Here is the input.
Amino acid sequence: MKELDMNLRNYLQSHKLTWKEIIKITQDIICALLRIHEENIIHKNLHSRNILFLKYKDQWQIGDLGFCGPADKSLDNIYGTLPYLAPEVITEREHNFSSDIYSLGMLMWEISFRYPPFANYERDDYYFINDIINGMRPEIIPGTPLEYKELMEQCWDADPMKRPNIFILKDKINEMMNKVQQTPDDYTNTNLMNDCSVNSINRSFNSKVYDVIDLCEQRNIIKDIVTENRIGQFDSPILIDDDDDDDDEINKPKRMYWEILDGKENDDVIIIKHKKIKLNN
Here is the structure.
């Protein structure tokens, strides 16, 4: 077996890349994910530490297949790294092909910026989850090629049905690669790093299992409003409790979002109660 030389996170922090190189890395990852999806398997845990470089093939591969599973298999737990988890994975308690595509969108941002998504997010995980569900995404840096920007935004669209499937992504990235092959190699995206330093990363996200048991039997332990000092730095598994009671007074929505109502840190698990809120604007 050939040794995998470096993971993508470490590679990005030690290399300045041209857009040709950025698109080539993205192309490799898309092709690797296509092979997984063709087997009717969902990866469930795409992030930059399990994208690995195979030097002898000059190719990026997807690793950490331990939590891959059939698309039609439902699990009691969800597994992943918070910045790369699609909102519906949290709210609907399951991974799907589209949630892999969302993770890929976050990887596209990280490859172009050389910086993990949300690494400098200053609030705690309780607020982070709420912000992601309500539409927070990383800021796209000026100078990002339009085609790359649009594809990335499609991948992390809040509506899973609007995300491209892996076959469309392959076609799009191949078109991009063909176009960039005709441009000089001397354009390096150093401008993307002007306002921050990779060394300033102040938060580390790790993969973990998030229990998604039915909390209806445990509502008695969800009593107190969670404050910032009650929640750890993305260290605790998260239990999701749905509250779908609609308020008749706000029953004419133009958009839908999720609001975390309250929660309580109970032993090693953060329990979060939330419901759908319908707004008129």
Observations:
- The beta strands are 6-7, 41-42, 51-54, 59-62, 69-70, 77-80, 208-211, 238-242, 255-266, 269-279.
- The helical segments are 8-14, 19-38, 87-92, 97-113, 125-133, 146-155, 166-180.
- Residues 190-203, 207-281 have pLDDT under 50 and may be disordered.
